[in-house]
Each structure stands twice: as C-alpha cells, then as structure tokens.
From TrEMBL:
Descriptive protein name: Aminotransferase class I/classII large domain-containing protein
Limits of the Aminotransferase class I/classII large domain: 6-269
Cofactor: pyridoxal 5'-phosphate
PANTHER family in UniProt: HISTIDINOL-PHOSPHATE AMINOTRANSFERASE-RELATED, THREONINE-PHOSPHATE DECARBOXYLASE
Entry keyword Nucleus: no
UniProt GO MF annotations: catalytic activity; pyridoxal phosphate binding
Pfam families linked to this entry: Aminotran_1_2 (PF00155)
Keywords of the record: Pyridoxal phosphate
Lineage: unclassified sequences, metagenomes, ecological metagenomes
Length: 274
C-alpha cells in the first residue's frame, strides 16, 4: 500500500478530516524537508529556539532564512512579530521545542489569520501536541488554505525507530507534496504500528494523565534545587536553565550519566547556550 490508504483513512477519521487532507511520511523529519522543497518559499521565518532540522531543510532547498528569537523573560513563548520580516513561510513548533511552551488555538488564531491574509504558509509542528491534543490547530484547516500541520507518532507513542509521521493540510497542498514525495517511503510495518497506535485510546488517555502528573512532580522537585530555573513546559520534557556560576549543561550531563540519568544538552539550540 504505497499510498498508505488504510492508515490515511484512520488518521483522517481520528482528526475529523478527509483523507485528502492527510499525507503520511517516513517520520515528520522527512516531511519537514518535503514541505520546504515542495512549497519553496523565497524567505522563511523560523521561531527560535527550535528543532535544527527546520533550518537545515530550508538551507538545503536554497531558501533564505530569518529568525524570530523568543525571550527567556517570556518563557520562550512566541507572542508577536511573526508577520513582520517579509517572509512567505513561518515555522513554529507548538508546544515549542525545547521550551515546551504552548499556544492555545485561540492564541494561534490571530497569527494564522494575519499570515493567511498575507499569503504566508504557516507550518505548525505539532510533534508533541498529542500530550495536549486539545491545543491542536487542526480544526482551523478548513479556514486557512496555507496552514500546514506536522504530526509525529514518535514522541507520544515512543516508537522512534519505526519512523512515522504525517502532514495535515488542504487538499491542494497535499497534492503538491505528493508530487515531490519519494515513493515507497513508508514500510508496511510502520503502517501497521500507526493503525495500532490510533486504536489504543486507553493508552492515550492513560499516557496523558501520567505525563501531566509526573511533569508537575518533576517541575516542583527541580524548582526546589538551588541553581536551577525550570520553565513550565506542557509536553513530556522540561527546559532548565543553570544559574550557578561555572555549571554548564555538558558538565552536568557528564556528572549525571554515571547515575544512569541522561539529560539533553540544549546548548546547541539557536538562542540558547551552556
């Protein structure tokens, strides 16, 4: 099934959309590159700190890039300015990665309205939104013809080696993506995993409850440690700033590893440091 029709129909039904608004790929990273290559904006805006593959995909496609840096003072939450740099595509993760900040659909709506009216593609990476599904902007696809939503099975379902993701967008955009998509990119095992994941509603509900509870516990526990500033994330990770002089992310990572605790050194994200 090179078109992944069975899985496409199940994804569409799960989100209340039509199969013509769904494109499945070999992980959402493949789809980031496909979006850049197929839609080919002249200039793209990336909201930072952000997943590095946005920038890499745009550069490989020969697209000029501008950056909108969110501030620590606002918990790295994008508030304004996404329409001010003369770009015709905007990449925004929601929840943000690595900050974990979340914009509600009501907060995203005015951004989407301004961008759509200006003819700007709005690419919203919802790789982690399964943890807060009600925050998805998917219900606005009918309203905004240039809205592109990236989704991933990897994060919520814990299947990184399977490589499975998908795009939600207007039928016109989906057709453009399909024209440049590599054939046979999604194997039959990945398709079977995807269908199994979508059918396990009990797992989804339990995971959301557990992650929400454990995230709050971890946030509260870390906040009581001197030398740490913990940002209030809404996904399954927390961004932590080291405020103790001399302490670095790479140094802390080395210290914790013998204790079988692995942290992500976020210093290589544009806009962050050690």
């Amino acid at each position: 099934d090179p078109q992944c029709m069975d899985l496409k129909e199940e994804i569409a039904a799960y989100h209340g959309l039509s199969p013509e608004e769904v494109l499945i790929g070999n992980g959402s990273t493949e789809l980031i590159y496909l979006v850049a290559r197929a839609l080919r904006p002249r200039r793209a805006l990336v909201v930072t700190p952000a997943f590095s593959e946005y920038e890499r995909a745009l550069r490989l496609a020969g697209i000029s890039i501008a950056f909108h840096s969110t501030s620590e003072a606002e918990d790295f939450t994008p508030r304004h300015g996404l329409d001010s740099l003369g770009c015709d595509m905007v990449f925004l993760a929601n929840p943000t990665n690595p900050g974990g900040a979340l914009l509600t659909p009501n907060q995203l709506l005015p951004i989407a309205e301004v961008l759509d009216a200006s003819g700007v593609y709005f690419v919203v990476d919802e790789a982690f939104v399964d943890f807060v599904e009600e925050a998805s902007i998917k219900t606005k696809l009918e309203k905004f013809s240039r809205l592109v939503i990236l989704r991933s099975f990897t994060k919520f379902f814990g299947i990184p080696g399977i490589r499975l993701g998908y795009v939600l967008a207007s039928p016109m955009i989906i057709r453009r993506l399909e024209e440049l998509r590599e054939p046979w990119s999604v194997n039959v095992m990945a398709q079977a995993f995807g269908r199994a994941c979508l059918s396990d509603l009990q797992f989804m509900a339990r995971t959301r409850r557990v992650i929400s509870r454990q995230r709050e516990y971890l946030h509260d526990s870390l906040s009581h440690i001197d030398g740490l500033r913990v940002f209030q994330g809404q996904a399954n990770y927390l961004l932590v700033k080291l405020t103790q002089p001399g302490m670095t992310a790479s140094g802390l990572q080395r210290m914790l590893l013998p204790h079988r605790i692995l942290i992500r050194d976020a210093s290589n994200f544009r806009g962050l440091n050690e």
